[in-house]
Amino acid sequence: MTTRLDDTHDPALMSWVETANDPATDFPIQNLPIGMFRRTGSHEAFRPGVAIGDQIVDLSAARQAGALPADVASALNACEPGQLNAFMAQGRAVRVALRRALSQGLKRGSAQQALLSSCLVPQAQAEYALPCRIDGYTDFYTGIHHATAVGKLFRPDNPLLPNYKWVPIGYHGRTSSIAVSGQAFRRPLGQLKPPTADTPVLGPSKRLDYELELGVFVGAGNALGEPIAIEQAEDHAFGLVLLNDWSARDVQAWEYQPLGPFLAKNFATTISPWIVTMEALEPFRSAWTRAEGDPQPLPYLDSAETRERGAIDITLEVWLQTPKMRENGQEPQRLMQSNYRDAYWTVGQMIAHHSINGCNLQSGDLLGSGTQSGPADDQGGSLLELTCGGSKPVRLVNGETRTFLEDGDTVVLRARCERPGFRSIGFSDCLGTVLPAPEAPRR
Amino acid sequence: MTTRLDDTHDPALMSWVETANDPATDFPIQNLPIGMFRRTGSHEAFRPGVAIGDQIVDLSAARQAGALPADVASALNACEPGQLNAFMAQGRAVRVALRRALSQGLKRGSAQQALLSSCLVPQAQAEYALPCRIDGYTDFYTGIHHATAVGKLFRPDNPLLPNYKWVPIGYHGRTSSIAVSGQAFRRPLGQLKPPTADTPVLGPSKRLDYELELGVFVGAGNALGEPIAIEQAEDHAFGLVLLNDWSARDVQAWEYQPLGPFLAKNFATTISPWIVTMEALEPFRSAWTRAEGDPQPLPYLDSAETRERGAIDITLEVWLQTPKMRENGQEPQRLMQSNYRDAYWTVGQMIAHHSINGCNLQSGDLLGSGTQSGPADDQGGSLLELTCGGSKPVRLVNGETRTFLEDGDTVVLRARCERPGFRSIGFSDCLGTVLPAPEAPRR
């Protein structure tokens, strides 16, 4: 099995940033995810940082202090303010160089401790922005349990379409309404036509939902007309974030044929602030297989590496906090848990498929994984699934119920990688809150 | 009827750029479309220009020469190099100010003739770029004759879906593969599964097609969560271009359910270089009506102005030049003609609908109209329609036939507005050429 494990993954590695050694932290020295931050409430420019324990290494400060290798400093220097795209475009080598440099500099006993100490900003004092300019956002549909469950609701006679097991189904989403964790958005207005009604009416969505997804940021792109071979596909992936693909189910049901979801999805999409790099995920790779009886992928989607290590073991969770919970000081409640290793198509397959027709991917493009539901009924990655299409309300611990989201509800996505013999890493929360709908536009 | 006609539309107005007075020109002084150009083969920066006759007014030169009003100069000055977005964001007022200033400066007898003469570049010496950064591209489906004809082929039992007459159907497209007229692109590879085959294979699309559309560039945007009222919707439109939504029909048929077109469309999209402003289109507005028996639009899509002047009378044409025609020195052959006034939904309705859920439009966003086919069989805006799904080849004047596009074929879209009592204006050609497919990626 091809492995890219190195010293930076050593589970014995400890940091002089002591909070990074807490077993519960998302950000041990083995993770080192990249984001875009500034001090909360300041008018500082957003700048790239790397999370370590409860701190952030300010990469602009580290660059100025001479604490980064020349190629990393040069790639960061090429970035436009607040946009990591130029760094992402450099591909794997420079990303690995940053990881090695910070691993060395942040480990216990490092000669760089004094230098890097002066570049730390506490996460408690930080706010985040999108890590890069997102020129393209494509949402895939790689969760077969989700596709089957939702297919049953939209097309009872035909839940999983014949193309599903051959084509990594995807569609283009809207980039302008993507925001970082903490996004609060108004419940969307839209055309609603219950099956029993003759004509649609305009109103606030009554079936507002979340979707539990991962997002893949593209690193190096490809030229128009030049497909990316499956063997090289993962080299074009920069890293992963959590992604909440908020969905208005009533709008979706009425609008989606024949050209797919549009206003049902494009009002808001939330991602977690830290990009967990492909290198950090290295210890959690596993074999990717096809269930017996399922077709093998076409050659342009198949490779030895895909089969040996195409899957990634990431535990995914959805948590909900209602306004009543918040008022009563109650923490969010977990609604479900699933795992990304159940995805039907891999990160590499998404990239190879997206570019097979010559479509040019660009650094900073975001690829959604589609909703990651597990095989069991209680593993639905959306309320649509957990409530069987809104027919069986979810009962919450405080006695409340939910069929779909209500105003003031906060949804938190969480993800963590654990494997015996390796240090666990996390993604940090991806959090979003529903605000009341606006008035319909005046006439 | 609300009218915004003014002195700049006076059909008697003549220019000291004598080629602008040729009745056949696309660019009389009543048009004044905006584009992004440089001298062909130079390493000059692309800069904004306005077409007049066979010349271009270099707006950067005109600004430096002091020939533009202060607000226009300031808006142009705010633009990033090669990107009109900051100018477009200023909305209608600054666009009108530019139009008035150039109309005054370019008319016969203008005191600015000497000054502006020095700012002219011949179109014969120019090459073009996209006029702005296109952050979002949404393709609508407003051609009801196209939707019906294509619906018959994809869903014989159910050609026009129940939502069509209520919802301005649209979906998100890919921005990275949009290019300006002259684009040559490789025939896409994709999964092909003829209805008779059990499994798909990877191969070059055998059913490559064009689609005749108009594209609407968004001027001023809206904030996330703030729908645009139908009464204000057209104020957010900057102007129109021709748009060729190249489509691989075999890929589309296999991939498009349930999430819509993806690789069938995102390999290339071509637009004409000059944006014809909403002001230039003013004389060609007409009443917009619903056919008897069709539902009236919901209130958020309805307004007095929509009904009085929602339609735009633009004659649209598709021309084809095969490699053999080119070798023999034959001009392209016209394949069809239709008119944009037949669109089922207006420009304002597209904008009001797109934002009703709070989705934020951004300056420079591009909205495709969908294929504009006419009501007659010979008015199909794609080969799919003209050949009845590939079953009846089109016979060309030189004895060749086409069911779908072959390598080397050049497709030219053309558009022109004519109305008695007004000066005719044109859009200039939107031209694209099919190159052979690449090899499948090596394994």
UniProtKB/TrEMBL annotation, chains A, B:
An example molecular function term from Gene Ontology annotations: fumarylacetoacetase activity
Pathway(s) per entry: Amino-acid degradation; L-phenylalanine degradation; acetoacetate and fumarate from L-phenylalanine: step 6/6
Binding-site residues, Ca(2+): D139, E211, E213, D245
Keywords recorded for this protein, A-Z: Calcium, Hydrolase, Magnesium, Metal-binding, Phenylalanine catabolism, Tyrosine catabolism
GO biological process annotation, one example: homogentisate catabolic process
Residues annotated as domain Fumarylacetoacetase N-terminal: 30-131
Its EC number(s): 3.7.1.2
Cofactor list: Mg(2+); Ca(2+)
Active-site residues, Swiss-Prot/TrEMBL: H146
InterPro entries: Fumarylacetoacetase (IPR005959), Fumarylacetoacetase-like_C (IPR011234), Fumarylacetoacetase_C_sf (IPR036663), Fumarylacetoacetase_N (IPR015377), Fumarylacetoacetase_N_sf (IPR036462)
Residues that, per the record, bind substrate: Y141, R155, Q252, Y256, T371
Residues of the Fumarylacetoacetase-like C-terminal domain: 164-415
Tagged with keyword Membrane: no
EC primary class: hydrolase
Residue numbers binding Mg(2+): D245, K265, T269
Pfam families given in the database record: FAA_hydrolase (PF01557), FAA_hydrolase_N (PF09298)
Superkingdom of the source species: Bacteria
Alphabetical list of NCBIfam families matching this protein: fum_ac_acetase (TIGR01266)
Protein name: fumarylacetoacetase
Gene: fahA
